[in-house]
Amino acid sequence: MHEPAVPHLQAADPEIAGLVEAEARRQFEKIRLIASENYVSPAVLEATGSVLTNKYSEGYAGKRYYEGQQNVDPIELAAIGRAKGLFGVEHANVQPYSGSPANLAVYLAFLDPGDPVMGLSLPMGGHLTHGWSVSATGKWFTPVRYEVRADTGRVDMDEVRDLALKERPKLIWCGGTAVPRTIDFPAFAEIAREAGAVLAADIAHIAGLVAGGAHPSPVGHADVITTTTHKTLRGPRGAMVMSTAEHAKAVDKAVFPGLQGGPHNHTTAAIAVALKEAAAPDFSRYAHQVVANAKALAAALAERGYDLVSGGTDNHLILIDLTNKGVAGKPAAQALDRAGIELNYNAVPFDPRKPFDPSGLRLGTGAITTRGLDEARMPQVAAWIDEVVRAAARADETVVERVAGEVRELLAGYPMPGWAPTP
């Protein structure tokens, strides 16, 4: 049953209630390895589903365009204070609706249309909003793209420096969406200073690891930091922009009124709850366990002959090139999903295949760590992945069905926040 319970939804709309229940069961029964997903606590769920969704609050605390903010202002101020305390930043804006709008706010705060912006190329692990051609950021600004080395799968900071000094971007992004290695924030900061650029750190994937001390922090190096509040941070689907005090006014003006109207107060409250949870000692243990699980899973996959981009991982994320396995990423991911192992197909650096049918798989350990799985379980997870990938190559559905049953049996012993099977 769902926790918190949803009896009113069940009574008012059985169709949607049934789909919610089915999704909860699906999340319970699958090894969820999508690197951008996690489980939130029942407290975060309750805040997200609260009456705060009824309230409009355009503006900022103490400077709203609607009356009736007596309770909303303290909630937003609490979220801001907790973000500042957790990450050690001078300023935090908790209003962005999601990660892409948060990144767009950085452009609006610091750039004019047509200005050069430098980011990791999307096929190399970067994000759409770091200047990729199909994004507004690649259409409205002049993209300058750095890559990873073909021989190491890692960013070469000397090459980044040479490119930055040649192209002189106004903004440099570090971070991305498929980066399995530690981001060298000090090196990026030095390059940005030399090039006269603003440095933006996109830590959407690793924010929880940064908060828990399992990854170095960009604070003190980056001028501005963006992050989603879900993924490894285990909050609701929202975002934050953090910065030095010097840039606080420009950031706030870019978020509102520059890009959006009223903040989603129910999300702001849930962000505040998640930030409080992330400040607890247990969260630091969680963040370090996420990394330990990823390293153990990567090692087990490598032992089975899997080609890992960059040779492994330093964080929660693993990127696999399946070229030597005789199957592409998409059919492998679909077979794994049927087998109860949820991840996503993904391009790998220098991928000769098309983005919608790439060579790779991307997986992460944030959600399975929340469920309580540890390093001892990672060899079994790797064995299941290997069995199903090999079965996908020969279209053997019997293996897929067997593994799905074994996965369900294992996960029955690991509680899921927000839902439990009806006794």
From TrEMBL:
This is Serine hydroxymethyltransferase. The modification N6-(pyridoxal phosphate)lysine is found at residue 231. Pathway: Amino-acid biosynthesis; glycine biosynthesis; glycine from L-serine: step 1/1; One-carbon metabolism; tetrahydrofolate interconversion. Catalyzes the reversible interconversion of serine and glycine with tetrahydrofolate (THF) serving as the one-carbon carrier. This reaction serves as the major source of one-carbon groups required for the biosynthesis of purines, thymidylate, methionine, and other important biomolecules. Also exhibits THF-independent aldolase activity toward beta-hydroxyamino acids, producing glycine and aldehydes, via a retro-aldol mechanism. Thus, is able to catalyze the cleavage of L-allo-threonine. NCBIfam families: PRK00011.1. Its cofactor is pyridoxal 5'-phosphate. Homodimer. It is found in: Cytoplasm. The record marks 230 as: Plays an important role in substrate specificity. One of its GO terms (molecular function) is methyltransferase activity. One of its GO terms (cellular component) is cytosol. It catalyses: (6R)-5,10-methylene-5,6,7,8-tetrahydrofolate + glycine + H2O = (6S)-5,6,7,8-tetrahydrofolate + L-serine. Keywords: Amino-acid biosynthesis, Cytoplasm, One-carbon metabolism, Pyridoxal phosphate, Transferase. Its EC number is 2.1.2.1. GO terms for biological process: glycine biosynthetic process from serine; methylation; tetrahydrofolate interconversion. Its main location: cytoplasm. Belongs to the SHMT family. Residues 9-385 form the Serine hydroxymethyltransferase-like domain. It comes from Actinomadura physcomitrii. (6S)-5,6,7,8-tetrahydrofolate binds at residues 122, 126-128, 246.
